[in-house]
Design brief:
This protein is an alpha/beta fold. Helix content is 45%, strand content 16%. The strands form two sheets. The protein has a seven-stranded parallel beta sheet, with helices on both faces. Strands 5-6 form a two-stranded antiparallel ribbon. Bound molecules: nicotinamide-adenine-dinucleotide (NAD). Nicotinamide-adenine-dinucleotide binds next to helix 1, helix 4 and helix 7.
Length: 251
């Protein structure tokens, strides 16, 4: 799909990886609508980069449906969906204060995994109405997993499970949507310098970079955005999860 013919919705577009992707796609000539629950940063980022904004909670079906309606009105169609909305949580299976709270586990799954699926299913239904391009393509969906899906660390049991769920959706969803000409891919980032991490302080950030093989630094959000763009432009990429992590294998 040509970026100039792309009309993308980006969840979590008010911050970090989603924001960088929105900026990059806008610079390359795509239309973009940000879906985010952050009502302050969302509209600010949208006006800064020339995107539209919809106040959306990805866990809420009505909210996503209303966001899709707005995105279609503003852009004419939606043919790319990039799911970046997510939260990071940390708690051990059994910690100092007892067993993992079931509420925090459920909330992590609810936002990261079910939220991603909720947006994917509704966006795909919308994309089915698009006219196909020369490749027969009606749309592309890019979900954001994490390398924690494969090598989750101590305290990451809920987060890793939520991301493994996203990784596991790529192939069956790609198969489900193949007849409609809709591709499904996932990106599994290593450690990227976004607001999710920026609050940790330089010493901790340097510590996180130690295990990265090369280049020995955290990922830049623009590097995630480059990969998202490449996936949109590459019709033969489908049903797979791509790690982008400087060969980091977390221990
Ligand atoms: N930063 C990293 O190192 C890293 C690594 C691996 C995976 N990821 C994943 O990438 C994605 C983006 O992470 P980031 O670092 O850019 O985080 P971020 O905190 O900078 O941005 C996340 C955005 O998602 C939004 N959001 C959260 N819950 C939402 C909801 N229910 N509905 C709508 N919007 C919601 C937030 O408001 C925020 O704008 C996340 O799914 C995260 O798990 C990040």
């Amino acid at each position: 799909m040509l970026i100039s013919q792309t009309s993308a919705l980006i969840t979590g577009g008010a911050s970090g990886l989603g924001k960088a992707t929105a900026r990059s796609l806008r610079e390359a000539g795509a239309q973009v609508t940000l879906f985010d629950r952050d009502n302050e940063r969302g509209p600010m980022v949208a006006s800064e980069i020339g995107a539209h904004f919809a106040h959306v909670d990805v866990t809420d079906a009505d909210s996503v449906a209303a966001g899709l309606k707005l995105a279609k009105e503003k852009m004419g169609a939606v043919n790319a969906c990039i799911n970046c909305a997510g939260i990071a949580t940390g708690e051990k299976t059994v910690g100092r204060d007892g067993p993992h709270r079931i509420e925090t586990f459920q909330r992590t799954i609810d936002i990261n995994m079910i939220g991603t699926f909720n947006v994917m299913r509704l966006a795909a239904a919308e994309m089915q109405g698009n006219d196909p391009n020369e490749d027969g393509e009606r749309g592309v969906i890019i979900n954001t997993a994490s390398i924690a899906a494969f090598d989750g660390q101590m305290g990451q049991v809920a987060y890793a499970a939520s991301k493994a769920g996203i990784a596991g959706m790529s192939l069956p969803a790609a198969r489900d949507l193949a007849r409609s000409g809709i591709r499904v891919m996932a990106i599994a980032p290593g450690i990227f310098l976004t607001p999710m991490l920026e609050g940790l302080g330089q010493e901790i950030i340097d510590g996180l970079a130690v295990d990265v093989t090369f280049p020995k630094r955290l990922g830049k959000p623009s590097e995630y955005a480059n990969l998202a763009r490449f996936i949109i432009e590459s019709p033969y990429l489908n049903g797979e999860v791509i790690r982008i992590d400087g060969a980091l294998r977390m221990r």
